[in-house]
Amino acid sequence: MTQKNVQNTVLWWVGWIALTIVTFFASAWFWTGIVARHVGTMDVPAARYIWVAAVFGSWMVFLVPLVILMYNRVDKAYEDARIARESTAFEKARKEFRVRTVRIDDRDRLLAKELAQKLKKLPEAVKGGHLVTAILKDGRRIENVFVLGGKDVLGVYGIEKMSFAVKDIVDVAPADLDRLPPFETEGWLRLDGVGTSPE
What we know:
This protein is α+β, with helices and mostly antiparallel strands. The protein has 3 helices and 6 strands; from the N terminus they run ααβαβββββ. A 6-stranded mixed β-sheet has the order 1-6-4-3-2-5, with helices on one face. A hairpin with a 3-residue loop joins strand 3 (141-148) and strand 4. The chain starts with a helix and ends in a 9-residue tail after the last strand.
């Protein structure tokens, strides 16, 4: 919540409490005169009982809409606070989760069918995903290429920009899972456009 919203909420609470007190005294003032004229002073036991019932009964009638208003206001305040917390947490996570990204169409990220078949025989680095070294037509070897679902080249670790096309991959070799670099979030380049743009 902004500072202005906090001030408005505090002022609303003060106003609600003041209105609750005012309605009580208004009810007491109204019924005191009527009971005194028609029943008697507070020295009369019946007058005291009638005064209490009338004052508190009227006060409750006034209080019910105030309580409903308070409930709605409090519910809105909690909802606003929840949204503000979630927005703050999302922004914090977005800033900390510094994955660079480029957008490559789904079909252009798919490995050739024979390479996808080969991947089926290789060990997975994580459930549903392979970490491989991609061998390109020009002989270059691109290490730490992440392939999801056995065919979707989803990311590459350790490169600044996408310098090859997935269709140029002619072979894949499993990464040595015992000698992996200390992966850091900002070192990945995602190819599906999800994340923050490259700087």
